[in-house]
């Protein structure tokens, strides 16, 4: 039984930062305080520069909200590898985030935004099959084709939170967050990159989505697999294999940190994991301290009368990262999806996106929001 499911207390979000993870678990090898100090000085300098600029141009000091400068390590660092723990926020991208909510008086010179007048389009429109038209002109068009904060269009992100609340009602929203991604594969690969190290093991249901297998191949990851059988996934096999690894009978396999699962209309077998089995699998994840990657692009496309329960909806321990996708409903080429998970993990993915794609397509995001 998960200790927290039994009514235990959640660790306070602002509790004392954890020092080291017990030996044998995770890769956390540094004092979190020293990493935080590392980025503090450059951000203090930046903040001082902002204050100077605002004084110089006579702007109100309130015009610019406080920069988010920290990646505060917490409960989930044991799922992160050394590279992920070294990530720091991109100053320009943090400024862009602030710009989105700053007063209109603030002139943003951080990133190279083209002047709206130089943009060659006057209108972009989408027409639905039922005749509904979505037209973007003027300032809406500028928003639709300009840079966005990495987490996504703030109004879309808010809508996604509400959407997740409606369909999954995850507990303790204050410990979770959402980020718009360029499809679910984008978020999934970034969480894999956040966690895996060469030779790590990962728990999967067999047959596994080939996009996941290709993703973990360069890590020479060992797949600890449980088979789909007539009655669903063989959770006994999953538990037995994990017990053997933990009791060090299988010394050559590392203790896994991740359980990857594609629970509805599994690609490629089409299997659907029942709600009851999901509960069993979640218990196993709690018992063996696994981060659950719930890759669920077909969630709304099942043939059941009722929508299935998601792992996210039963997540009392904040150990589920859920990947959703617009690909199977609106079209894969839009490259639009989103990820919901523990705040710290969403933050790592955000920092990764800050230096890779910068953000998912603005045009796609404003279109979906509208
Ligand atoms: C299980 C699974 N995960 C992820 C993806 C990729 O989805 P997206 O287009 O949202 O990146 C697919 C696409 O086929 C899939 O079947």
TrEMBL record:
Biological processes per GO annotation: alpha-amino acid metabolic process
Necessary cofactors: pyridoxal 5'-phosphate
InterPro entries: Aminotransferase_I/II_large, Class-I_PLP-dep_aminotransf, PyrdxlP-dep_Trfase, PyrdxlP-dep_Trfase_major
Record key words, sorted: Aminotransferase, Pyridoxal phosphate, Transferase
Region entry Disordered, spans: 1-39
GO molecular function: kynurenine-oxoglutarate transaminase activity; pyridoxal phosphate binding
UniProt xrefs under Gene3D superfamilies: Type I PLP-dependent aspartate aminotransferase-like (Major domain) (3.40.640.10)
Domain spans labelled Aminotransferase class I/classII large: 145-351
Skewed-composition ranges (Basic and acidic residues): 28-39
Pfam family, any one: Aminotran_1_2
Name of the molecule in the record: Aminotransferase class I/classII large domain-containing protein
Source species of the chain: Cloeon dipterum
